[in-house]
Design goal:
Strand content: 25-35%
Radius of gyration: 19 Å
Strand order of the largest sheet: 1-2-7-3-4-5-6
CATH superfamily: Umud Fragment, subunit A
Shape: elongated
InterPro entries: LexA-like, LexA/Signal_pep-like_sf, Peptidase_S24_S26A/B/C
Number of strands: 7
CATH class: Mainly Beta
Largest sheet: 7 strands, antiparallel
CATH architecture: Ribbon
Number of helices: 1
Pfam families: Peptidase_S24
Number of domains: 1
Structural class: mainly beta
CATH topology: Umud Fragment, subunit A
Protein name: DNA polymerase V subunit UmuD
Order of helices and strands: HEEEEEEE
Length: 123
Amino acid sequence: MGFHIPASDYAVERLSLDSRLIPRPTSTYIMQSAETIWRVGIMKDAMLVVDSAATPVDGSIVVCQLNDELRLKRLRFSPVRCIEDLNYPDRHQMLTSETLIMGVVTYIINDARSAELDDCPVI
């Protein structure tokens, strides 16, 4: 017989970034942002976790192949099916059969040591 350890009621599993950020390893890849996109909180050199098996919904940030380049766009289904430029939402392109969506951005990982994002300043 031993004594009950009071903290044993609060034991938690170890935190695993792999299981948290990459639930489907076979369909997930990581990209690096080439530019800052302030409107969605992506800093230059941010790591983007992209799931190619995720189902995009209205408003998802997606990776599209346009003119042999991979571009980040926002997917819209309403009022019409289109992809929006992340910096300029009024600029959009209609979805066609030639639009290739490579995956959905599920997480954005910014380096907090080198950048500051203040999208809602409180002063």
